[in-house]
């Protein structure tokens, strides 16, 4: 727990956007966005390819400037909140010959200078061991990262991202190309981080089903429009049909959300052209 604890964190939103807009040239991805994300909230960003999900994260990181409005992350301007942010980038596998062992990768997240002085070597080692254990990666601590499976690598990225006790954990499609078991393990780790340390989680994903048990609210982006609310409020036939500007049907099947009838151009690239399921069982 950070100094000040949950009570102090609760006083200010982890992320605050006011009249925020993001446009590239003539194309506006979203505009008029007012949003407070609470400490400890699990906030999902959903939408079809090209709707602006990754750009939303980049705006919070300060990599892409808002075209209108203001943003604050952990009470600071985007780009000034570095130490308060944990970031899990979109997954790319490490090359087989990457000269880093699993524990080295995690240590990269610990070795910062957030306390003003560099941590004593032994303290760094202890923290790295602790993080490896936390994500279930102790057994392969000394294995070169390029030899690990996608799921194993992703656990390490989570460990690296949470190493600095971030107030805001930004996750860009962290479950992509993981099997169901690893999807559950990785999303469970991220959920634990927000429960135990109060990190606000901003989780970009195409598929809500693997995180449905955890999500408090979603921002659904489509075709320059958006909607914010609980999954029950947003993932409905009427809301998604309005967002897409064409009839879309949302149904619940065995506790999972299935969306049928998305326009061709917005269908997930590696799924069938006419039938989009948020996730396959
Ligand atoms: N720096 C940039 N300059 C111009 N256009 C950009 C820039 N970054 C992103 N775009 C465009 O903005 C749109 C949204 O991109 P973004 O990557 O945010 O979408 P996304 O919802 O994350 O998509 P995907 O699901 O495919 O990852 C795309 O059409 C993209 O080409």
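-> sequence recovered:
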């Amino acid at each position: 727990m950070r100094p000040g604890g949950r009570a102090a964190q609760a006083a200010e939103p982890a992320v605050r956007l006011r009249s925020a807009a993001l446009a590239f040239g003539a194309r506006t991805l979203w505009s008029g966005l007012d949003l407070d994300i609470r400490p400890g909230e699990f906030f999902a960003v959903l939408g079809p390819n090209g709707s602006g999900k990754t750009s939303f994260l980049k705006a919070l990181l300060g990599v892409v400037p808002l075209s209108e409005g203001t943003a604050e992350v952990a009470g600071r301007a985007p780009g000034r909140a570095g130490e308060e942010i944990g970031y899990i980038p979109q997954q790319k596998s490490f090359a087989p010959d990457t000269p880093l062992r699993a524990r080295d990768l995690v240590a990269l997240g610990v070795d910062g200078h957030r306390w003003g002085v560099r941590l004593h070597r032994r303290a760094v080692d202890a923290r790295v061991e602790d993080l490896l254990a936390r994500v279930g990666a102790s057994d392969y601590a000394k294995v070169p990262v390029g030899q690990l499976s996608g799921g194993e690598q992703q656990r390490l990225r989570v460990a690296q991202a949470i190493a600095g006790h971030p107030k805001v954990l930004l996750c860009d499609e962290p479950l992509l190309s993981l099997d169901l078991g690893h999807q559950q393990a990785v999303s469970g780790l991220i959920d634990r981080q927000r429960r135990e340390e109060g990190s606000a989680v901003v989780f970009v994903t195409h598929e809500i089903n693997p995180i449905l048990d955890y999500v408090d609210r979603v921002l659904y982006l489509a075709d320059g429009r958006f909607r914010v609310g609980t999954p029950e409020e947003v993932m409905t036939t009427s809301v998604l049909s309005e967002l897409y500007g064409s009839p879309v049907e949302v149904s619940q099947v065995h506790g999972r959300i299935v969306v049928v009838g998305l326009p061709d151009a917005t269908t997930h690239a590696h799924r069938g052209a006419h039938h989009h399921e948020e996730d396959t069982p």
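The CA atoms of residues 253 and 281 lie 10 Å apart.
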